[in-house]
Amino acid sequence: MPKMKTNSSAKKRFSLTGTGKIARKNAYKSHILTKMSTKRKRNLGHTSMVSSADMGNVKRMLAIGK
């Protein structure tokens, strides 16, 4: 059976942590930021973890595990 290809867009958007979780960036931080409060913009700058409901799809795109 051939190797599974990694989805090119997914490898740019997600990163694997040391504990095996998948980190992602928050949305709504690209443009039209003048109406947003400074606190909200600052908090959107941090990374978040992928939810357990989406974990299977992201792992499949990254060719992690099965």
TrEMBL record:
GO terms for biological process: translation. GO terms for molecular function: structural constituent of ribosome. Gene3D superfamilies: 4.10.410.60. It comes from the Bacteria. SUPFAM superfamilies: L35p-like. NCBIfam families: rpmI_bact. This is Large ribosomal subunit protein bL35. The lineage of its organism: Bacteria, Pseudomonadati, Bacteroidota, Sphingobacteriia, Sphingobacteriales. The gene is rpmI.
